[in-house]
Sequence to fold (550 residues):
Amino acid sequence: MRSLFARLRARRLLSAFAVLTLLSTAILAGSYTVHGVHGQEKQANSADATPLKIPNSTVAPNAFAQIAKQVGPAVVNINTRTLPRDAGNRKRPNPQRRGAPVPQQPDDDDQPDSQDGAPGQGQGPGGQGNFQDFFNRFFGGQVPGEGDDQGAERDSLGSGFIVDPKGYIITNNHVVEKADEIYVKLSTDPDTTDLGRKARVIGVDKATDLAVIKIEPDRPLPTVKLGNSDTTAVGDWVIAIGSPFSLSQTVTAGIVSAKNRTIEPGVSGQFQHFIQTDAAINPGNSGGPLLNMNSEVIGVNTAIFTQSSGYQGIGFAMPSNTVVQVYNDLISPTHKVTRGAIGISFREGLSGAVGRVYGFKNGVLVQTVTPGGPSDKAGLKPRDIIISIDGQPIKDGSDLVSEIAGRHPGSSVRIGYLRDGKQADTTVTIGDRDKVTVETAENEDQAPADKGEAAEGKLGLVVREVTPATAAKLGTGGMSVQSVRPGSFADQEGLGPGLVITHINKQPTTNKAQFDKVVGSLKPGDDVVFEVMDPRHPSVGINFLGGTLP
Fold:
């Protein structure tokens, strides 16, 4: 009986297998069945189908295609490696090459205020006080899992372009500044896991975020043409070429959205006046060229504005005219950019009340003068208003920086200024910016308010005379702010506990009697400008805070 059941079971399995074999054969043969409207099965018939053919047609190349073909061979892929270090900060070579770079979350850097002609700018474009939270430079990424591990090897990616057939390449400083090893891959190099050709740094300039590196080619290399960025207009078509996310020779297009964008406040941004574009720029594009429709480089892609760590239609490129000047300095025997300075600091974006009280519309109100520096030796003082250089009017701090920085150290310049409403001039010998320094003003948390006298109803202040020790530290007497009423005029103009008011509307307030006299004469609608100093940072000098009294 068991053998009978076994034979029947074997036959059923064989029958099932035969059915499956037939179905498989039908499927492999390309035939299948479909059900008609009445459930009847029938074979599909494609005898009337016409096979497709690839046409032998051509499309005339547009300007973008021509530019990409012409310039692409001169755009390079830059790989960098930062080697791990031991406890003694010594490099530890790692022979193991890890995976391909991936996008890195960029860092946000807080920037200092103005120095030696540098405009102090508290906000970025559009008045965004938190602009710096979203202003990010991109240079590719780190190996996964190695983000903040200083003991691990780090790999990054960027772009660059060849400007000399001998192998000189322009890129961003932030692409190479932390690298122990730099490799360059040409568009004609084999697409393998090889990093590329070893490169060395010729020179870097942090102020403009530019760098020059060099490889040793076995033949003359293709180069780009440099264009005149001053002739570029808003609305012009532009093309970006680079290696975003390791995708070399990526071409994107857009227009010039704006020019002369200063996007970092204070010293860090004074030499960075960018071309803004909506051409797609992403991690890895840094250092690549921005081109006009003449196939000329008009900028070096440097940064993007983003809230997502990726492209959002706002990118920034360093103008080619700046790039040419910096490049020529970096390939010189000194391999550095030398800029002039006169040893002053100031703040830009002052209240209109400050200009009205001090009697100027255009010019630069001097905040501090470096002791023993060029301006000090020439007799300039805090509160002076610089209005001209060699007879040419100065509109604002950007004008001043541009004029002075371009002068060679050791040369002389005639500076016109206002002091107490009277015009004067003096000759200043330009110094080397790297050697002429000024301690810059910083926004510090104010010290806790002390209890003092009754509040001034007009200003919302409680003040008291400074101690002799504080007066000696500042070099002047004044009224120390003890507390500020929230929402008051003083609060709105930026006064805070710990600051010392030395003048109001140019009138000294070295004691309570002087202070009360000046404040007593104020009435609604008056412009009120405070000259304040911070005893915690006496070398910062005078700051000017003011507005119109409601």
